[in-house]
Amino acid sequence: MQSIVESSRTRDTFTLLIFIAVVLTAPIWGEFIGAGYPDLLQKFAIFGLFAIGYNILFGLTGYLSFGHAAFLGVGSYATVWSFKLLSMNAIPAVIFAVALSAIFAVVIGYLSLRRSGIYFSILTLAFAQMSYNMAYSVLTPITNGETGLQLKSSDPRVLDAALGVEPQAVPLADLFGITLNGYAGFYFCAAILILGFWLSMKIFRSPFGMKLVAIKSNQTRMEFTGFSPRPYLLTAFVISGVYAGLAGSLMAIVDPLAGAERMQWTASGEVVLMTILGGVGTLFGPILGAATIKYFENIFSAINNQVLESAYSFMPEWLSDIAILLTRPFVGEGWHLMLGVLFMAIIIFLPGGIIEGVRRIGGIFKKSKQIEEDA
Amino acid sequence: MSTDNEKFGTLSRRGFMKASAATAAAVAAPTILTSTAHAYVNEPKGGTVTLGFNVPQTGAYADEGADELRAYKLAVKHLNGEGDGGMLNTMTNCVLKGNGVNGKKVAYVTGDTQTKSDAARASAKRMIEKDGAVMITGGSSSGVAIAVQGLCQEAGVIFMAGLTHSNDTTGKDRKKNGFRHFFNTEMSGAALAPILKKEFGTDRTAYHLTADYSWGWSQEGSIKKYTESMGWKTAAAVRTPLGAGDFSQYITPVLNSGADVLVLNHYGKDMVNSLTQAVQFGLRDKQVNGKDFQIVVPLFSRLMAQGAGENIKGIYGSTNWNWSLTDEGSKAFVKSFGAEYGFPPSQAAHTCYVQTLLYANACQMAGTFNPCGVIDALEGFKFDGMGNGPTEYRAADHQCFKDVLVVKGNENPSSQFDLLKIVEVTPRAQVEYAPDMADVAGELGACNPGA
Amino acid sequence: MDAILLQVLNGLDKGGAYALIALGLTLVFGTLGVVNFAHGALFMMGAFVAVSVQNLLTISMKVRDTSITFFEAYKETPYLEVWFGDVGTTIIDYSVPISILIAIPIMLLIGLAMERGLIRHFYKRDHADQILVTFGLAIVLQEIIKANFGANPIPQSAPDIVAGSAAVGALIGAEGIVYPWWRLIYLAFSLVVIGGVFAFLQFTTFGMVVRAGMYDRTMVGLLGINIERRFTIVFGLAAVVAGLAGVMYTPILPPDYHMGMDFLVLSFVVVVVGGMGSLGGAVAAGFLLGILQSFFSMNEVKEILPGIDQIIIYLVAVAILLIRPRGLMGKD
Question: What pTM did the predictor assign?
Answer without folding.
Answer: 0.92
